[in-house]
Amino acid sequence: MDVLTVLKSQWDRIAAVVCVLLGVVLLIVGYQGIADSPYVAEELAYLISGGLGGVFLLGVGATLYISADMHDEWRKLDRIEEAILSLRSDGGSDGGPDRFDDLVEPVAEARASRHRAGSPANANGAVGAGVAQRSAQPREVLAMPREMLAHLRVGGLAIAFAFAALMVAYWQAANTNEARPAFTATASAASVLAVAGVVGVIGMVGMRRRLMRRRNLLLGGFLTRNQSQARATTATAGPVATRMPERLVVIPEGRYAHVPTCAMVTGERTETVSSSALPEGIRPCAICTPAAL
Questions:
Q1: Cα–Cα nearest to 173, from 193, 190, 158, 149
Q2: Structural domain of residue 261, as residue ranges?
Q3: What is the pTM of this model?
Q4: Is 265 exposed, middle or buried (0-12, 13-18, 19+ CB in 10 A)?
Q5: Can you give the pLDDT at residue 118?
Q6: Taking the C-alpha atoms of 141, 145, 149 and 152 in order, what is their torsion angle to the nearest 10 degrees?
Q7: Residue 244 and residue 91: Cα distance in Å, rounded?
Q8: pLDDT tens across 123-179, in order?
Q9: 140-143: long-range contacts, CB 8 A cutoff, minimum separation 24
């Protein structure tokens, strides 16, 4: 894989690492500037540019890295969706247990619904525009899913607004010798940064909820089917018989019989007894013996 392909496919993680490193550098520079300055207004200017600016870049880096993980998970769900839709032609035609219509149809309807939402002029297609765009590219250079772009745009606007507010606040603090205007600019920058952080968190939560809804749609049918089959198998076969070991061990003056490997008797002096004829007052251990489970 060439360097250009890596940069295209992992741009968000690379940008996240760069932002975190720059944020750490800004924090160090800001601390040094505050420590070396005898003027309050100048210290506040360093606090805005180095302190708040460093925190801002750390937050942007964390957001980018989380969104990269969500992007990867969405691509995995794309592949799962393709695998589920490929089951449409599998199974018998008699409607027997090998049919997957109950699993395929909700997925196909959800895909068609996403296509209609993204391309109203071509609503008859079965493949959404975003899905078609992603499938036409190499797997390593997939575009950001259309379904996640709305939350990313909101986050991008919040980041741009916070950056502009930091620049304005720094300009105000750096061009005054009075403490009060510098304090006002610092408080304003901190408030805008807090609001941008809340907006970013809300966007991340919205993206995570979209992922969870899609995952439940794709995999919920399989889980329900497996649980139903497991209940049917248990009802048909009945409870599975367990076999008690022939020999158990007891601790002298103890009240329970254990298998030799039980953690309750590790390092203890024990005596061997027969599981079919336990001494009076001795009961099987509820932790290690199958008869007590």
A1: 190
A2: 247-292
A3: 0.61
A4: buried
A5: 58
A6: -60
A7: 42
A8: 333 333 334 333 444 443 345 566 667 777 777 888 888 999 999 999 988 888 888
A9: 140/1, 140/5, 140/8, 140/9, 141/5, 141/8, 141/9, 142/9, 142/71, 142/75
Choose one of 191, 212, 237: the last residue of a domain.
237
The two three-digit tokens of residue 163, written as one number: 């950056």
Verify that 109 and 252 share a domain, yes or no: no
- Provide the number of structural domains found in the chain: 2
Closest CA relative to residue 118, chosen from 133, 139, 136? 133
Q: Is 242 part of any domain?
A: no
Kindly give, in sequence order, each residue whose CB lies less than 8 Å from that of residue 125, ignoring residues fewer than 6 positions away. 112, 115, 119
Please give the share of the chain, as a percent, with pLDDT higher than 70: 76
Burial class (CB in 10 A: 0-12, 13-18, 19+), 44: buried
Give me the mean pLDDT over the 206-234 stretch.
78
Band (111; pLDDT cuts 50, 70, 90): confident
The confidence score (pLDDT) of residue 123 equals 37
